[in-house]
Amino acid sequence: MPAGGATQTQVQSLLQPHLQPHGTMQGYDPGSFFCEMLRPGQPQHPTLTLLMSRLAALPIASLRQRATEAERDLLERGITFTVYSDATAIDRILPFDLIPRVITPTEWNQIETGVIQRVRALNMFLYDIYHERQILADKIVPEALVLQNSGYCQAMVGFNVPFNTYVHVCGTDIVRDETGAFRVLEDNARTPSGVAYVVENRHMSLRVMSDLMTSLRVRGVDEYGLRLHNAMAEIAPLGVEDPQVVVLSPGIFNSAYFEHVFLAREMGVPLVEGRDLTVESGKVWMRTTSGLAQVHTIYRRIGDNFLDPDAFNPESTLGVRGLIEAWRRGAVAIANAVGTGVADDKAIYAYMPRIIRYYLSEEAILPNVDTRICAEPDALAYTLDNLADLVIKPVAESGGYGLIIGPHASKAELEDFRALLKADPSNYISQPTLQLSVSPTLCDDGVRPRHIDLRPFAVTGKDTWVLPGGLTRVALRAGTLVVNSSQGGGSKDTWVLP
Amino acid sequence: MDLVPKLHKVHLIARHAEATLWLARYMERIENLARILDVTNTFARDADDTRNWLSIPRINGDLSEFYKKHTEATQRSVGEFYLLDVDNPTSVQSFITAARENARTLRALLSTEMWLQINVFHGKIRELNTEKVTPDYFTAVCGMLKDGTQAHTGITEGTLYRDQAWHFYMIGRYLERADQTTRLLDTRFHALAPQSAAVDADIDAGQWNALLRAAAGYHAYRREHPSGYNATEVACFLLANTAFPRSVGLNLAQIEWHLTTLRSRYFLRMTAALERLDQLNGMMTYQNVTELSGRKLSPFLDYVQREIGCLHQDIVETFEA
């Protein structure tokens, strides 16, 4: 027994600042939600303790001053997305909350390996459904769900892509429930956006919150452009020594244009529109000041349907005539591949744990949220019986539109929705309402808990690399769960500890 | 030694080259307009107020458009037309919107500082309101516009990477300067050039003053010609003096250098543009301008203006070939 009767652990815990909201954090009460900073029931992490005391010591007036600076800075720098209402375009910033979301090394390990596993499974699934369709024959996933899916692309059948990689850039939306367990909410396997904010948020933290970050050795996010370029070069047609990569954007009026600029700049490649490209003699060229120059890889930020009027929507003027044919002949690489939409469909999502098990003989490292497919009679009955307790989502929508959160809906809204659901059950899935984790966020009435999610970005050429952290979105309105930028959400810098 | 590494070929999208030309031209137009508004405001305090203010729509070829909206040219009406009117394609509102749109297209190529400054400048211009065209603010607004464009020029000089895009940017700036100086001289010369020797002495020194100030050349001109004003000398100064930053001759010479560099370093076919330029350059001499001064100057200035327009076209058509 050491002198004084105290054990070593007791002494250490006495020396550490007590992890209780104090100072600026006074009055911060996450209630029953899992708080990313206080982490009830989890071992204390010394860095979080330190961070908490640093934060608590920052006067609220100082935080507000910095928040004002940050907002002005974002607007001036044009780190904005464009919202369209009544035919007018308004540049909006994604509100930035300066209190970071922190991820410990253990947590990051689970996220990183979980995302890599998921991307592997998605790519294997895509290969399979565009080739042998083994998973359909084995009745793991209903055939109709795949073959009649609007994201399923006939042009991809039998077509091989380098390294069998279809999803070169994947954004996996992850939430944390009230126990602190991570769960995947959805996969974004088409053209996930938001990575520019990850990097810009870090730059913003370095500008306005550097004192909070001192000596923490937070993992860097600056290599994204380099990694992406490497992957784009890897998938270029064989035998090209210095492949020409381009970013294909719908143009300056697209809401995510800033991100397209960011990607082109970070990769050091031209940012082009469809009209800058042309297909001649079976190859893809860009119109430059010195004539046509061959393009080898296109990182496109245009939806499948707009890529090539010959192959898809003939009305589209955003794309390049003949592009798909050139791609099929191996003259150019396109990332993400066409036809990946079928894999990130909300209906397919429900099968992801089984898909992972089928191809990899592994359990999902990152579990799904329990999901019911309303196309199945039992699931529909359950959903109709428990409407008020569930979140019901249309399978084809994105951006948080058209979903209903049972506990937040009025009786009338629920009844209206019941009719919609009955009319077209196969268009919906249902999930239990999640008690999303919260993170301390600067609000009008002080530092308050607000719900957050996480979208890590995985880049895959030959192998998969995950950008440390990802985009943490925060629902700025008290009580709301919807974090989408189009629905009044903001974002936070995401710090992965070493 | 060639400073552009040969290892990796950096292409410039043709559409971006054109946007670069336009970005430079629109920013330059804002400065020119601010200069003219400011000078007019300073020199328009005599009885002939309307005539002075009217010179601005005239110089821009906007007379009929102006009269569709306003009955009389005053500080207020001309100020509104050029500073506030978003429907007037020659207002600073339209210029900054177009400049920002081009900058947005080029955002991946511009320096972050360039984009940021244009974005903030755009915000300031969009905020202008009717109060700002009153005498209380007029000079300050012109000052803000000049500061903004000059900050842009300085940031561009200090931060824009000097590859192809920079050459096109500079060509755009010089094309616009040459064009603006021609216009300035043309409209003022009508009013100022002596119709006969008898009225020579009556030339309003203040008007020459205003003309030279609008071109930012007043003090330099004074140094070169301390004895007084002379129509021929002013024309030579504005057209042929290659030390004066806004002279047509200097700007054409700069364009020639940039075109030649684009040809030698980036192998761009600039044949048509260079030929046209060669011919035009040959005319911007003291001797030639002296011979032309008087009634023949105006048709000559028209010709130069048309040629500058063609030059822009020649350059752009090179990409389309």
Q: How does this model look, in words?
A:
The complex is a heterodimer of chains A (498) and B (321). With 498 residues, chain A is α+β, with helices and mostly antiparallel strands. Chain A contains 15 helices and 22 strands. Chain A has helices spanning 8-15, 46-57, 60-77, 105-129, 134-137, 143-147, 195-208, 210-213, 224-234, 257-267, 323-328, 346-349, 352-360, 377-385, 411-423, and strands at 80-85, 88-93, 96-103, 169-176, 182-188, 245-248, 271-272, 277-280, 283-288, 291-294, 297-300, 333-335, 372-373, 390-394, 404-405, 428-432, 438-443, 446-455, 457-460, 464-466, 471-475, 489-496. In chain A, the strands form six sheets. A five-stranded mixed sheet of chain A has the order 3-22-21-18-17. Chain A has a four-stranded antiparallel sheet with strand order 5-4-19-20. In chain A, strands 7-6-11-12 form a four-stranded parallel sheet. In chain A, a hairpin with a 2-residue loop joins strand 8 and strand 9 (283-288). Chain B is mainly α and 321 residues long. Chain B contains 15 helices and no strands. Chain B is globular, with a radius of gyration of 20 Å. Chain B starts with 13 loop residues before the first helix and ends with a helix. Mean pLDDT of chain B is 90; it is low at 196-202. Chain A binds chain B through residues 76-78, 242, 244, 252, 257, 261, 264-265, 270-273, 275-276, 286-291, 293, and chain B through 8-9, 11-17, 101, 104-105, 107-108, 112, 115-116, 119-120, 123, 164, 168, 262, 266-268, 318-319, 321.
